[in-house]
Write a structure and sequence with these properties.
heterodimer, A: mainly beta, 11 strands, B: mainly beta, seven-stranded mixed β-sheet
Chain lengths: ~110, ~110
């Protein structure tokens, strides 16, 4: 099955700096890569996703890049703010297989220092 | 309001006492899934369902059962809970329509098995 690895496990940045979280996946058939943000005590919520026919996607301060050849994808957060502090999870899925099974990385705890 | 609900939110029980965690969604989603979240392990899929009466095992199904008798409900059953099932459980749902893959998570159920 799919194996998703995520690094780093913890990340501290100064407010205003950028943060980058990286993930690799093993199954070349995976074609959907969402990122979830989980605040303390809350449910995971989708913040951005990318499909394999696109190399980069941006939404305001958040961007995701995908390298299908190397099987890795990354989350970039620019101009970080204290409210960006949370645990971030990457995931991979094959969305054309009749199901929508997400395989998650182990998470990155991001701390933005004011 | 479109949402996924779970009950109970918190549960403390003893080894061997059967329990059910309910999950319901009001978005007419075909796909529903259960995950458990443990520190350092991310979210791991327990069971999933692609439609009524269609269920299948995820990565960590041992000790769990599910049913999908109605489209909106997907209960998780622990017939004989054990301490290693102490965890945070999330139910999620999504459409299976092309291009509409976001999984929506419930608020979580924190289970402690003594």
């Amino acid at each position: 099955g799919e194996n998703v690895e995520q690094h780093p496990s913890t990340l501290s940045v100064q407010e205003g700096d950028s943060a980058v979280i990286k993930c690799t996946y093993s199954d070349s058939a995976s074609n959907y890569f969402p990122w979830y943000k989980q605040e303390l005590g809350k449910r995971p919520q989708l913040i951005i996703d990318i499909r394999s026919n696109v190399g980069e996607k941006k939404d305001q301060r958040i961007a995701v890049t995908l390298n299908k050849t190397a099987k890795h994808f990354s989350l970039h957060i620019t101009e970080t703010q204290p409210e960006d502090s949370a645990v971030y999870f990457c995931a991979a899925s094959i969305i054309d297989a009749g199901a929508n099974n997400l395989f998650f990385g182990t998470g990155t705890r991001l701390t933005v220092i004011p | 309001e479109a949402q996924v609900t779970q009950n109970p939110r918190y549960l403390i029980t003893v080894t061997g006492k059967k329990l059910t965690v309910t999950c319901s969604q009001n978005m007419n989603h075909e796909y529903m899934s259960w995950y458990r979240q443990d520190p350092g392990l991310g979210l791991r899929q327990i069971y999933y369902s692609m439609n009524v009466e269609v269920t299948d095992k995820g990565d960590v199904p041992e000790g769990y059962k599910v049913s999908r008798k109605e489209k909106r409900n997907f209960p998780l059953i622990l017939e004989s809970p054990s301490p290693n099932q102490t965890s945070l459980y999330f139910c999620a749902s999504s459409s299976l329509a092309a291009g509409d893959n976001e999984q929506f998570f419930g608020p979580g159920t924190r289970l402690t098995v003594l």
